[in-house]
Amino acid sequence: xxxxxxxxxxxxxxxxxxxxxxxxxxxxxxxxxxxxxxxxxxxxxxxxxxxxxxxxxxxxxxxxxxxxxxxxxxxxxxxxxxxxxxxxxxxxxxxxxxxxxxxxxxxxxxxxxxxxxxxxxxxxxxxxxxxxxxxxxxxxxxxxxxxxxxxxxxxxxxxxxxxxxxxxxxxxxxxxxxxxxxxxxxxxxxxxxxxxxxxxxxxxxxxxxxxxxxxxxxxxxxxxxxxxxxxxxxxxxxxxxxxxxxxxxxxxxxxxxxxxxxxxxxxxxxxxxxxxxxxxxxxxxxxxxxxxx
Length: 293
What we know:
By secondary structure, the protein is of the alpha/beta class. It has helices at 11-21, 34-43, 55-63, 82-101, 135-146, 170-182, 200-213, 230-241, 257-260, 269-275, 284-287; strands at residues 2-6, 26-31, 46-49, 67-70, 107-113, 153-159, 162-164, 185-187, 194-199, 218-221, 225-229, 245-247. 40% of the residues lie in helices and 19% in strands.
């Protein structure tokens, strides 16, 4: 396939681009800066310049492809409404990409998050939340799956709260960044809440498998670690950075605070059984040992 990829320079995206190229596909990748364009070109991808908000550019990329992997998401959370704006932008981009594929039976695979289910690990059969701080992502993801009724082989890969590589990435990476800023390896609550996790290289394999063969209107879980305790993450971060470890207020983590405090384990049993996906790379706590002081 000739695959159009958004977010191809991120922790997940760079791994997905490499996975696709290494398995006989070609890649057209959106680049939002000169540095991104250079990196993608060096990786072997064809480059399409544009912003995630350039919906006409996105549709051009989709029209030129045999399939789409949509990974791009905003990273600037400095403003109070930044998370909401990033969710809205991501949703508009997904809708534009999907519309370009209507009636073609071509695939689009988009990233979303694993759902939260009180008292147990979430599964692929559980619906995404459509209210709360990240409800907009759930609504956009559901709209993408609904395109299966309009001749699009749409699918979701639900990514855990931490997708990591070389000790960085995802929510655990935000814990590390906050520890560097504050001088404390902090965790909200007592730290016994659990977060699922996956190595980016394992997630990339699943994106390829779903792109190649998943049925329309389906959701899959890129979960390798069902649930690591946040306190255990903070302890590794504290040891690697030589910082004290302690409970800190949720507010220290800005808009992510309430999400960070939730117990949110997740399972990938169905994904492994049906698609034959087998994570092989280090788990989160082992990978956090790569944090550089």
